[in-house]
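[Structure tokenization] protein backbone as discrete codes

[Encoding] learned vocabulary of local backbone shapes

[Begin record] amino acids and matching fold tokens:

___
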Amino acid sequence: MNPERFLLARIGTETFAFPLAEVLEATDATEVTPLALLPSGVAGQSVYRDRLLPVIDGSMLLGVTRSGPKGVLLVIEVDGDRVALWADDVVDMVTVDPRRFRAVPAGGSGTGTMLRAVVDLGDVIAAVVSMDDVRAFVRARLMTEVA
């Protein structure tokens, strides 16, 4: 098993590990503009490199409470489109041997489907985010097929 690289991001008091290869960029969330009638979990939009990106509320996605109005946007790609995940802060980049992954504990707020594992990094326990499930969430909220 090859080691995997992760970007650690904090949302509220929790630390989440996002596969580094899946995060195109982390940038300051200078302004997220809410819009009327957005689907649940969509916080609004933000300007990124002269383009408007939809912003997914990381706290709603992962079932935790964000700590403030600012934060960072983790830019990812879903079916060729860029989308931002709103988090409180980027903490670190780490390399983890997959043999250190442990099963996601049962119970909690129902976010287990967004998590593929947990890993003890010594000073913090991080929840490893399933990017396949994140992409499915984004597709369900933002992308509709026109018949």
